[in-house]
Every structure is written in structure tokens, then in C-alpha cells.
Amino acid sequence: MKNIASIFAILFCCVVSVFAQQPTEQRAALTEPAMGFDAKSSPAIEARLLTTVLNGSQDSPVTNIRVAIKNTTTNFYTYVTGWATFYDAGGTRCGEGLFKLDALAPQESAETDTPGLRLRCSPSTWRIVATNLLTRTADIAKPTEVAPSAAPPQIVVDRTPPVNFIISIDGEEHPIQVNNPVVLKLGNRNRKIVLKSAQ
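^ thats the sequence. predicted structure below, dont judge the formating
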């Protein structure tokens, strides 16, 4: 019985580790946009290929392409980088290039290229991976916006102006206000007297 339980535990660990290694960036056809995700696996950027002729070979690789990157979030990105990776019909990676943008507003698209690309096939699918998505410092403290709740009603305290009282000790008068202490010398000792309302 222990052997069967341990076999199931090992099998479960293997299944979990296989699923944990599946890429979050899914491949897309060349005519479809590819999605890039942020650190929380939420869609962050979308890319469309602007270069239509991608016929590379070992002797004559494609060395640069144009891509349109769109910010699909509500965050303003000050710096965006990532990889565009291409796969042939058999699913083998046959080229990748780095893209970079200096600023990207929410829902804005910008064109960029992939210098350093060495595409050695006629790809059928591609994907993008966002490696850097730097936001403005004002956006860092609010990764997930929550709608502000209605402020609780302010309790208005009706303050009455201070009322002056006079304490008379053996004919000597001392002014005093409510909740404001007065220090009097009685005999050879100082005494603090506070007048409070009885509520």
C-alpha cells in the first residue's frame, strides 16, 4: 500500500513539474498578433509583424524585420524590451531578434525593428517574450487599481468657543478655561488645576 501511494506521489510531482515548464507565451501564426505577458502572467503587450517577406535560409538569413508593438495595459511604460522568436513548420526555433522601445503609453502602438535577427527558415509561427516592462515611478505603487470606496461621512463636532471661568482662592482670582490647566502655587507647592465638563 505504501508503494502505491509513493508511486502516485512521484507521478503527481512529475505532472506538476511538466505543467510548470510550459511557456506562457503562446505561438501565433505570422498573420496574427502575438501576446507578451508581464511578471504576473497578465497580457501586457501585443505585437504584429509588419514585414511580410520572411524567407530566410542558411545561406541568406533575414537579418531585420519591422514589428508594431501595442501596450494593452493601463500602465505607461518608459522602457520596453523583448524577444521575437520564430518557428518553422516542424516547431523548431529558427531565429530570434531583440526589440526595444523607449516609451509606450496605454493603448498606444509603436513601430520598431529587431536588429541582430538571424532568421534561417521560412517561419510558420512566432511568439514574443517581454523581458523589460519598466513603468513610471507613479505607477509602481498601484499595480492593481481598486476603485476608491465612498469616503465615510465626516462627523461634525460642534465646538463651542472656550468659556472663561475665574477661580477665587482666598480673594485671589485666577482665570481658567475648560480643559486648559492652570498651575497655582498653594503654600510651598505648585498645583495643577484642570476644569472639565461633567458629561
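The chain is about 10% helix and 40% strand.
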